[in-house]
Structure formats: structure tokens, C-alpha cells
Amino acid sequence: WRWGGGGDDGFIDFKKAPDGGYIMGGYSYSIDPEGDFYLVKTGTEGEIEWETHLGGTGYQSGYSVDFTQDGGYVISGRAGDPPFDVDIAVAKCDSLGNQLWYKVYGGEYNNDAPHSILSLTDGNMVIAGSMGNENFSYSKNRDAYLIKIDQEGEVIWENVFDEEYTTVHASNIIEVPDGNIVVAGIRY
């Protein structure tokens, strides 16, 4: 199968959807030269059911996708003015790929980055990634960053895990049977 348009398009993540098909997400420069979130929903045999470009104005690049408890889909990624003036962005669409909302999250400084988004059994979502904590550096002194949002994208809580003179990045999330979450990442 082949997806995308005439520009630079790519998938970064995919998940098996509840109906047996797949949701694939990443980025596209085919319609907007600054970049969009790009989602493709396939059937069980890989045939396209729909494709959509999501996000706001300016640069967006998707990193992680998931399905939501209400039948929609969500993609997290980066938005802003790359390479350093970027924040975490999330777009949600319905079961047919129609954008419902788009929100940007981040800290006081630049260069915030998501790694994964997970839809939880309580209907909310958690985003894991990192937050820049200096105004001038890409890789120096970054903090692990977790955000829990509801179905409308409103922040329920945010946690920053800061360790002085260290870069910490939260990456993979799982939900354990008691409803808590476990997050893995890197520290250097």
C-alpha cells in the first residue's frame, strides 16, 4: 500500500484500532508546506477508509497516535517554529477523521517534545515527553513531562520530573490494572 501526497509525508506511529483496522499517524507536507499532523485509518486488509490532515496554523509533526474511549482518534506531536521554539500539540478527531479540537501544551521555555500518548480506561489521556527548562539549549537540562488531559483536551494535571544538570525524557506509558500508570524513559 502507498499513502500520502506529493510532498514529504511519513508515519511515526500506528495502533490496531478496535474495529480490527489500523490508525497510522505522523506528518505531511503535501498540503501545508509548514507541516500538518497526518492520520490514515485503514480497514483490516490495509485499505484506506479515510485520511486527514489535522492541527492548527504553522508547523506540526505527529509522533504518537491512539484511539479514544468515545470512538475517536488522537495524535500528539510538536508544533511551533522548529528546531527549538516548539511545544507539545495534540489534535483529536472523530471516527471519520473530522478534527474536533487542537491544543498546545508546554512550559515556560522552548523545545517541549512528546514521545507518546495513551488513552486510559477512565476516558482521559496521558502524554509523556520532555520539557525544556532553559531558554537557550536544545539538549541541556531537559525534564520529563507528563500531562493528563480529558476528552476535550483540558489539562487535569501536569507533572514535571526535574533533576539538576540532567536530561530526562519520559517515553513509553502503560496503564496497569489498578488504573495507575507506569512510565519509562531515559536519563543522562
Q: What does this entry show, briefly?
A:
The chain is mainly beta and 188 residues long. Helix content is 0%, strand content 57%.
What would you say this structure looks like, in words?
The chain is mostly beta strands. Helix content is 0%, strand content 57%. The protein has strands spanning 9-16, 22-28, 36-42, 48-54, 59-67, 73-81, 85-93, 99-105, 113-119, 125-132, 142-149, 155-161, 168-175, 181-187. The protein has a four-stranded antiparallel beta sheet, with no helix packed on it. The model has no long low-confidence stretch (mean pLDDT 85).
Task: Walk me through the topology.
Layout lengths: L8 E8 L5 E7 L7 E7 L5 E7 L4 E9 L5 E9 L3 E9 L5 E7 L7 E7 L5 E8 L9 E8 L5 E7 L6 E8 L5 E7 L1
Antiparallel strand pairs: 1-2, 2-3, 3-4, 5-6, 6-7, 7-8, 9-10, 10-11, 11-12, 13-14
